[in-house]
Write a structure and sequence with these properties.
Blueprint lengths: L5 E5 L4 H12 L3 E8 L18 H13 L4 E5 L1 H17 L6 H20 L4 E3 L4 E5 L5 E5 L16 H4 L2 E2 L7 H10 L3 H4 L15 H8 L3 H5 L3 E3 L5 E4 L23 E6 L4 E5 L5 E12 L9 E6 L7 E8 L2 E11 L6 E6 L2 E8 L3
Parallel strand pairs: 1-2, 1-4, 2-3, 4-7, 8-11
Antiparallel strand pairs: 5-6, 8-9, 10-11, 12-15, 12-17, 13-14, 13-16, 14-15, 16-17
Helix pairs in contact: 1-6, 3-4
């Protein structure tokens, strides 16, 4: 007998999504598993085997677990949609001198859309993923994302783009556990090998972590197009020649291929002139930024300036700031200078453990 309704559980074959499905099944939901095939690593031309959500072994692991517990499992091929949107955007952002975070776009525009569409077709009331985050309905009636219990694994940062219609149907079973507890749960369910499964931290379509090589393979003649550019200092003085502006990111120190007698950092990328600006300690500091494509989650909108902890990258500890909304943009003033604000990365605002909202860091 169905106790809690039907839920479509995203199953990559990894430990978190597998335990997600097992917990839901144990709690009385009617579970339907689905594995989304987003990318064939062989097509990226890299040097390492397929890993993470795209491997045949992981797909088989997900299917076997579903069979073990008697619930259906489907494979959803979204490679074409994923490639057209996520890969194209990734390349375009680097070619525009920005530093993209494809996981944010994938969650917002690909995975949740695909899950909800298939959930409707299968009469599923809910969808579930293995993200370390939590969702609840606030006193204002809005669905609110908050950090996962295990802050070392918290993934709320990559979920800022989700809309209310998606959140009201979303369940995050792993959000209330630590990673250690999730591994123990896998053991308790009888999956010792799963409990010891390694995690993948790379971008799924660049599992060898060589984004330079990926760009070279995706953009025909890229090296010839961008070679011969200059490293300059903040006053415009030429310091040397670089390999091409798309191969650098703001804040980068290692791998610059230039010796200046003291540590230097990339402080700005100017694609129009194929120029990379270098600076020294302190030159990366900034106190303001503009955020575009704003999505406010906790409130309908920000009616006044609010105090928030703002994260400017996934592993950022966060910084006290004042945030003001103007239409689809936010203007952020940090209470103390922060380093390496990289256009294209996500800026995410928090109130305690609650995610207020977020957007993409603009170039100006």
């Amino acid at each position: 007998m169905i106790k809690k309704g039907r839920v479509l559980a995203a199953m990559s074959g990894g430990i978190d999504s597998s335990v997600t499905a097992l917990l839901l099944h144990q709690q009385g939901y009617e579970v339907i598993g689905i594995t989304m095939k987003t990318w064939d690593y062989a097509s990226s031309g890299g040097s390492r085997k397929t890993t993470g959500c795209c491997s045949l072994d992981d797909i088989n692991d997900a299917r076997s677990l579903a069979v073990d517990h008697g619930f259906p499992h489907y494979i959803l091929d979204i490679r074409e949609e994923f490639g057209d949107f996520i890969i194209d955007n990734f390349v375009e952002e680097y070619m525009a001198g920005k530093t993209p975070n494809p996981c944010v776009l994938c969650n917002t525009h690909i995975k949740w859309d695909a899950l909800l569409k298939r959930a409707d077709q299968l009469d599923c009331e809910f969808i579930a993923t293995g993200h370390y985050a939590q969702v609840r309905r606030g006193d204002n009636g809005r669905y609110i994302i908050s950090k996962g219990l295990d802050e070392t694994k918290d993934q709320s940062y990559v979920l800022w783009g989700l809309k209310q219609e998606a959140l009201k149907r979303t369940i995050f079973p792993c959000g209330g556990y630590t990673k250690k507890e999730i591994r123990q749960l896998a053991m308790n369910f009888g999956y010792e090998a799963l409990s010891k499964k390694a995690e993948s931290y790379e971008i799924c379509f660049i599992p060898d972590n060589d984004y330079r090589g990926f760009l070279k393979r995706k953009v025909e003649g890229l090296e010839e197009k961008v070679k011969g550019g200059s490293f300059i200092d903040k006053d415009g003085n030429i310091l040397g020649e670089h390999e091409g502006y798309p191969f650098y990111t703001v804040g980068q120190r290692k791998g610059l291929g230039i010796a200046l007698g003291k540590p230097a950092f990339v402080t700005k990328i100017i694609p129009e002139t194929n120029t990379v600006v270098l600076g020294y300690d302190g030159d990366l500091d900034a106190t303001t930024m503009r955020v575009r494509d704003l999505n406010i989650v906790k409130y309908e909108k920000l009616d006044s300036t609010i105090e928030a902890i703002t994260k400017i990258r996934y592993k950022d500890k966060g910084h006290l700031s004042s945030v003001t909304q103007e239409g689809g943009h936010a203007y952020v003033t940090f209470h103390e200078a922060v380093q390496a604000i990289a256009p294209g990365q996500s800026a995410v605002f928090y109130e305690g453990n609650d995610l207020i909202g977020g957007g993409f860091i603009a170039r100006d």
